[in-house]
Design a protein that fits this description.
The protein is mostly helical. The chain is 92% helix and 0% strand. The chain contains 2 helices and no strands. The two termini are 30 Å apart.
Length: 78
């Protein structure tokens, strides 16, 4: 249950930060060229962060599946 609450919090934090970023960019007193350049940079950063998070989730999934496989094997040996 703790993991679920943590995941929900992190998800909310991510989406809230993203929404704040978008609103901030739209209302920032910059020229269109500057804003587009910033958006390009932030999009690249978001892509890297997303890739890292996906790899983390994959790794956790593998760990969970491997752990369950070990538990099942141990139970069947008993």
């Amino acid at each position: 249950m703790e993991d679920n609450k943590t995941g929900a919090f992190l998800s909310g934090l991510f989406w809230g930060a993203l929404a704040g970023f978008v609103v901030g960019i739209l209302y920032a007193p910059r020229s269109g060229v500057e804003t587009r350049e910033i958006l390009k940079e932030k999009t690249k950063e978001l892509g890297v962060i997303t890739k890292d998070k996906i790899e983390d989730v994959k790794s956790r999934g593998r760990d969970l599946l491997t752990g369950k496989g070990i538990e099942i094997t141990e139970e069947s040996e008993e």
